[in-house]
Amino acid sequence: MITLTDVWLTLGERQVLKEISLSVPAGETKVILGGSGSGKTTILRVILGLYRPDRGSLLIDGQDITATRERNLTEVRQRMAMVFQGAALFDSLTVRENVGYRLWEQGRLSDAMIEKSVRDSLQFVGLEYAIDKMPAELSGGMKKRVGIARALASGARIILYDEPTAGLDPINTCMISRLIQLLKSKGVTQVVVTHDLATAYRVADRIVMIHKGRMIFEGNPKELQSSADPDIRSFLEPDGQCFDSEAFAASEIGEP
Q1: pTM for the complete prediction?
Q2: Angle, nearest 10°, between helix axes 170-184 and 140-153?
């Protein structure tokens, strides 16, 4: 569904991405892991068509959009939705209006159909009771869940997440991770950018690790934990203290 092949990108004088090649099959949840400034969020912007690669190609559903003009990207972007790190809700709109905003903008559905989609999506994230609240009345975790509801209500088959659990307490982190897991059952293709290992292990079918703009790993969570690559080890064990990876895998991987 999403394929990047030998993608290079320069921003200003900085080479941000180098030789990035990855694919995300339909229905897969792929985590892009890496530290701050590694280039992982830039990959999301390439997928959205916000950045054009210097070289290489980007295919969405088999369609090469690398050189597609901005005005022709609308149809492609309608297949995708973004869940932003800060939720990016409209402060002046209610939860109902935020979740249904894209549908009302498109004008393709009746108000009754949009209302049903909004309520179903909020029920999915456990926030139907908050439908008439304003963003200022919501906690950080609730705002993230509204962002997921908005993505779901849009009908997008591809959802991109930028640090979905950043700044959340452990309970809300688990809740967001659980929602990402549940979306797999709906056949949604997901790309999750994070630096949080626990989130990566919980939600990923496959993990890609980015270091200084290059891919240094692709595989499943257990394969990541067993890697001997020094850059990967320094990311997994920043304080130099090894954790018991086998015990962690047994107790945490796949669990909310």
Answers
A1: 0.88
A2: 10
